[in-house]
User: Which sequence fits this backbone?
């Protein structure tokens, strides 16, 4: 199958054709102008020569002689040769020639118009006479009294004019050829540059490629953001707009977190970021072609649901492990109670069993009594079981009070769960005591969530960066998301968040969420 011409080749052929036509038109115009100028110059020359001869005293005197031809013929021929004209005819008012380049025509009538000259004017015309087609001027000759005593006709044949014009052809041809060569060289350079930029593709191929690429970019279920070398967004597909909350008909302005990722120069693979209510996994690579940097390609995948499911799975796994540990501990205590009964000490067995039940019921009553939001109460009980498994004492502040659900349960669970998880992580590396205290209190206009721990605490610099995406005191990928989610919820409600040092060591994390009216 014969490959169609590329855009560069088509443009080169078109430019050569246009330039050739343009140069041809210009050359034709130049030739026509030169021909007109040569004609005008010839007319001016013959008119000037004719007027000069008509005013010559020798001519005036000769016209009064018995045989004017004897005196005028030598004079006319010498003047003709000196002025490079083709004929000079001096004649009587009745057209009888006294001079002519062809002596045989002397005495015969002049062929041409003389009416205007006889009236005292100048006749300029193109006429085919005895010497062929020529441009001629006829002027009157006057004596001292002003009477017209004769006429002078001077002419140059069109063949002579054309010969002078043809003498200029080599110069015009050289200029035309030079113009064509320069234009062809410029077109070739432009075509070469265009061929590099289009990679030798033809219009149909480029159209088909654009259609395919556009269809693929908008159909793929992965967010794609392409930025130029200056950081400006060049392309953002439909999925990326959906994930980043960018309107379809608005400017492609990504959130600040994504803009920061684009501005960074390091490669990035599957790093979690926050964008609105979503947790995205981002990968960043620099786009290069033939060693030349073109910009940045950022791919985004939605991991919000996966993170939620993972969090729920972790909670269930933690609860399962806690229940397994409690079941193991309960089995030990049950064996102890049974052994006490078998040893004949039923009072001691009843006392031990009652204390265990009272301790478990006390925590449940404390949580359920303070927090009447079922999902949040279940979360605190589950976190308490996880804390017990880790050897951490988790308690609910007696002043806690949350009546119902002043805010959506999802947001309360996000804030409380992530603050408690962060506190449990903080105290996991200390020797002891390892305590976490939770305060949830509903006010007239806001909900206060405060979690304190006895961990190592944070420096002022660490406290300032703790709620930033990706920041964590512990190494490893995928960290630094929990407190970022807390910050996001607080900012969405127009609330506040912060970290303060605890009086006895550790940290106090406080979040205030305004209750919508």
Assistant:
């Amino acid at each position: 199958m014969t490959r169609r011409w590329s855009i560069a080749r088509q443009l080169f052929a078109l430019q050569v054709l246009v330039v050739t036509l343009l140069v041809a038109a210009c050359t034709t115009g130049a030739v026509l102008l030169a021909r007109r100028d040569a004609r005008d110059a010839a007319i001016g020359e013959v008119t000037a020569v004719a007027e000069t001869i008509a005013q010559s005293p020798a001519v005036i005197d000769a016209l009064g002689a018995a045989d004017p031809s004897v005196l005028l013929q030598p004079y006319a021929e010498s003047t003709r040769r000196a002025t490079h004209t083709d004929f000079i005819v001096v004649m009587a008012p009745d057209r009888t020639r006294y001079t002519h380049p062809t002596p045989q025509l002397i005495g015969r009538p002049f062929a041409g118009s003389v009416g205007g000259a006889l009236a005292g004017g100048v006749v300029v015309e193109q006429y085919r006479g005895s010497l062929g087609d020529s441009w001629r001027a006829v002027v009157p000759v006057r004596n001292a009294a002003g009477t017209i005593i004769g006429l002078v006709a001077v002419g140059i044949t069109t063949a002579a004019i054309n010969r002078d014009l043809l003498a200029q052809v080599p110069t015009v041809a050289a200029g035309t050829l030079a113009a064509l060569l320069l234009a062809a060289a410029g077109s070739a350079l432009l075509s070469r540059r265009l061929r590099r930029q289009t990679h030798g593709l033809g219009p149909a191929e480029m159209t088909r490629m654009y259609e395919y690429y556009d269809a693929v970019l908008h159909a793929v279920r992965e967010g794609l953001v392409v930025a130029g070398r200056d950081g400006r967004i060049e392309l953002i597909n439909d999925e990326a707009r959906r994930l980043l909350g960018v309107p379809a008909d608005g400017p492609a302005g990504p959130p600040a977190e994504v803009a920061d990722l684009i501005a960074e120069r390091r490669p990035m693979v599957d790093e979690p970021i926050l964008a609105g209510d979503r947790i995205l996994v981002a990968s960043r690579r620099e786009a290069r072609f033939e060693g030349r940097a073109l910009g940045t390609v950022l791919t985004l995948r939605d991991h919000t649901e996966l993170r939620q499911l993972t969090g729920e799975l972790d909670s269930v796994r933690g609860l399962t492990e806690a229940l397994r540990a409690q079941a193991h501990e309960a089995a030990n205590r049950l064996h102890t109670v049974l052994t006490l009964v078998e040893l004949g000490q039923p009072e001691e067995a009843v006392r031990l069993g009652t204390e265990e039940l009272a301790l478990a019921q006390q925590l449940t009553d404390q949580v359920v009594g303070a927090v009447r939001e079922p999902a949040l109460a279940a979360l605190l009980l589950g976190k308490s079981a996880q804390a017990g498994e880790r050897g951490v004492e988790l308690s609910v502040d007696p002043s806690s009070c949350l009546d119902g659900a002043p805010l959506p349960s999802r947001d309360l669970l996000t804030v409380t769960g992530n603050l408690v998880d962060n506190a449990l992580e903080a105290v996991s590396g200390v020797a002891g005591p390892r305590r976490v205290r939770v305060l949830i209190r509903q006010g007239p206009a806001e909900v206060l969530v405060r979690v304190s721990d006895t961990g190592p605490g944070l420096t002022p610099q660490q406290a300032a960066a703790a709620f930033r995406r990706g920041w964590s005191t512990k190494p490893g990928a995928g960290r630094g998301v929990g407190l970022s989610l807390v910050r996001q919820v607080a900012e969405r409600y127009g609330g506040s968040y912060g970290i303060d040092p605890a009086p006895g060591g550790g940290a106090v994390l406080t979040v205030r969420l305004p209750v919508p009216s």
Notes: The chain is about 50% helix and 20% strand. Residues 220 and 413 are 33 Å apart (CA to CA). The chain has three domains: 8-166, 220-302, 306-514.
